[in-house]
Design a protein that fits this description.
Layout lengths: L1 E8 L3 E3 L9 H11 L3 E5 H6 L11 E5 L12 E3 L2 H7 L6 E3 L3 H7 L5 E7 L7 E2 L8 E9 L2 E8 L5
Parallel strand pairs: 1-6, 1-7, 3-4, 3-6, 4-5
Antiparallel strand pairs: 2-8, 7-10, 9-10
Length: 161
């Protein structure tokens, strides 16, 4: 299964200048809990935005999408040019999770089966945005409200024959 994980503001903003716009410790724990032991797929900007001490993300198979043949990654980190190739390489795993950035989210939306979204209840000024979650395509299957944010899981609706 291919999933997406992202913290998204009310205005769909997810970042500015390659950084997060909020510090929500519960969201970081939620991210760790959901991705631990799984494959995480990210774009090169997301990879390089991670603090060096967290690269590669521990207890996860790290996959980086890049078109730059000069990019070098530590042993054990896989790199692919195309999302489709990364997804195909991990198709036999129970779940691979796309973790950013915006271009990767946009490419993954049509093929993902699940979204793990932290809805951040603010509308910051940013330069990177998450695609719209179309209610004709996605069904909310879980919601956990907190002060200032909500953890929401969406599953792709199954089209009737």
């Amino acid at each position: 299964m291919l999933s997406i994980i992202c913290a998204v503001a009310d205005n769909h903003c997810i970042g500015k200048n390659n950084t997060l716009l909020w510090n929500i410790p519960e969201d970081m724990k939620h991210f760790r809990d959901l991705t631990s032991g799984k494959t995480v797929i990210m774009g090169r900007n997301t990879w390089f935005s991670l603090p060096e001490k967290f690269r590669p993300l521990p207890n996860r198979k790290n996959v980086v999408l890049t078109f730059n043949p000069d990019d070098k990654f530590p042993d054990g980190v896989e790199s692919y040019s195309l999302l489709e190739d990364a997804v195909a390489a991990h198709a036999n795993e129970p779940e691979a999770i796309v973790m950013g950035g915006a271009m990767i989210y946009k490419a993954a939306m049509p093929i993902a089966q699940r979204l793990y979204i932290t809805h951040v209840h603010q509308s910051p000024d940013g330069d990177v945005f998450f695609p719209e979650i179309d209610p004709t395509v996605w069904k909310e299957t879980a919601c956990e409200n907190h002060e200032g944010f909500s953890f929401v899981t969406y599953d792709r609706k199954v089209k009737s024959p």
